[in-house]
Each structure stands twice: as C-alpha cells, then as structure tokens.
Amino acid sequence: MDVPIHSHPEVLEKLYERFTYLSGQPLKLRGVVGDAHHIGTIETEELLGFVVADADETTPYQPDFPLLSRQENASLSHYVQVQLLEPWPRPLVEVVWGSRSVEMNLIEHVDLHMKPARYAQLWYGGETGVLWEAFF
C-alpha cells in the first residue's frame, strides 16, 4: 500500500493502540518531511517505530563505490533515504502560567511528533544494491 504516513491506516491504528489515552482524539503527525511513505513497522514492548521512505529517485549522479566494479557502479540508477520514526505524543492538556493564576486548557487535537531515530541511504539498480551511511 503506497500511502503517505500521515493517513496510513496501520500507522494510525498502531498509534491508538500504543497510546490508549489518544483514543478518539484527532491526530496531527508532525516532523514528517514531504510525502514520506510507510514501508514497515517495528514494534516491541519498548519501541514503536515506523520505517518510511520518500519516493525513489532516479539519480543523474553516478556513484563510484570503491568496492564495486565499474559495471556495478554504472547499474546504480536509483537512490532512496529510509528513516525510522518514533512517535512522541504531545500532552492533551496545556498549562498556562499567569502572574497570579494557572490555567489548564484541553487541547482539541494532538500534535504527535515523529522523531527521526535512525536512517540509511540506499543506492540500487539492476542486481546491485548498496546500503550507504546507515545510522542505527
């Protein structure tokens, strides 16, 4: 399913499951650049992460990886950056401190920040692929 992460049904379902207090609240996903597409989910007891990628790009740049042959380098025609995003929900209540009072406001929607946690650059084409600058 090639759906942007902002409206991907599996992503929204996992967020509501993990953060039960968000149930019924409209979510606004923040921190996602462009039209990042959901390509996978990593879920453990400690981690909920969404693997996203921008659309594959055909690149005019010809990479020159020293461990590949000239023919293998010539076949690398596509590039994509893949990221692991971790959700970081904003509280549902906003506290405003005045000089003599404290005001608490219920927030009508939740800004859910999607923090980039890991990323990798992928070059590929033909039968060759290179994982480049991967930060895990």
- How much of the residues is beta strand, in percent? over 45%
Q: What is the percent of helical residues? A: 10-25%
Order of helices and strands: HEEEEHEEEEE
- Number of helical segments? 2
> Total number of β-strand segments?
9
Q: What does the model show?
A:
The chain has helices spanning 9-18, 70-75; strands at 27-30, 37-43, 48-53, 57-58, 78-89, 93-97, 102-106, 110-125, 128-135. It is mainly beta and 136 residues long. The protein has one domain. Strands 1, 2, 3, 4, 5, 8 and 9 form a seven-stranded mixed beta sheet that branches. The longest helix has 10 residues, at 9-18. It is elongated, with a radius of gyration of 20 Å.
Write the layout of secondary structure elements.
Elements: H1 9-18, E1 27-30, E2 37-43, E3 48-53, E4 57-58, H2 70-75, E5 78-89, E6 93-97, E7 102-106, E8 110-125, E9 128-135
Parallel strand pairs: 1-8
Antiparallel strand pairs: 2-3, 3-5, 4-5, 5-8, 6-7, 8-9
